[in-house]
Structure formats: structure tokens, C-alpha cells
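call fold(seq) -> C-alpha cells
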Amino acid sequence: MQAAKQAGLLRGKGGRIGGRVSPVLIRQAKQQTGIETDTDLIEFALATVALEDNFARAFKASRGKVVPELKLGF
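ret:
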């Protein structure tokens, strides 16, 4: 959440979101994260997605682009 705050993603809390989700999903997510309120849980989930580093996509895109002669040290 600190990274989201530093990125300016938590300013101006005027937006509203609504939807139907499984109570079991909410309960498990709260238990897993230690977050107690629905609002904080939604904010955490959205910040996690917004700050994702896309490592898997970048790793896949680099496939075959490293020369075979490169010494990796193992």
C-alpha cells in the first residue's frame, strides 16, 4: 500500500465501486491479508493489480533473445 501511496494511486477517494462477490472469497481474502474492512480489501486488491510489474509477460517476450554463449555462472 505504501507503493500505491507513493505512486499517487490513493489520492482523492471519491470513487465508488459495487458488485456481487462470494462471501467465502471475501472471508478468505480478509483472512489471508489480515484486512478487516471491505473498503480496505478492495483498495488493496486494486492497488495490487495496478502496481503489478508484468514480470511474466516480459520474461515470455524475452524468450530466445539471449545468446546461447552467455555465461550465467552455473
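The first helix runs from residue 2 to 6.
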